[in-house]
Amino acid sequence: MCYKVISTSLESNLFEQWDFLGSIPWMRATLWDFYANIFIITLWMFYKEKSIILKISITILFVCLGSIATLAYVLVHLFKLKPGEGVKELLAKR
Predict the structure, then answer these.
(1) Which regions span the lipid bilayer (predicted)?
(2) Residue 89: what pLDDT?
(3) Helix or strand or coil: residue 83?
(4) Structural domains counted in the chain
């Protein structure tokens, strides 16, 4: 993901091509899909985290880095699980 994002950023400036990209129906659908995903993951993160500073910081990372940040967040919490813990412990507060 990181390679694709960086190489695409070096080839093409999103802000210069926004008018063209915004006119493509699939691009608009992809953005709706992305922000719906970010919204749900952010709700889970707000439930799970205690610090408001951490909540705001992670939300900014989610919006700016997309799947890279959400994947990192989920992986961190997966690696924090103890042997024998599962989905219930992953989703619940600690």
Answers:
(1) 29-47, 59-79
(2) 85
(3) coil
(4) 1
Alpha-carbon distance of 7 to 29, in angstroms, equals 23
Q: Whole-angstrom Cα distance, residue 72 to residue 69?
A: 5
Task: State how far the Cα of 19 lies from the Cα of 11, in Å rounded to an integer.
Answer: 17
**pLDDT tier at 16, thresholds 50, 70, 90:** confident
- Cβ atoms of residues 42 and 59 within 8 Å: yes
Distance between CA atoms of residues 3 and 8, nearest Å:
8
- pLDDT class of 14 with cuts at 50, 70, 90: confident
What lies within 8 Å, CB to CB, of 90 at 6+ separation is: 77, 78, 81
Instruction: Provide the phi-psi class of 66: left if phi over 0, else alpha when psi is between -120 and 50, else beta.
Output: left
What is the extent of the structural domain holding 40? 1-92
pTM here is 0.76
The single-letter DSSP state of residue 30 is H
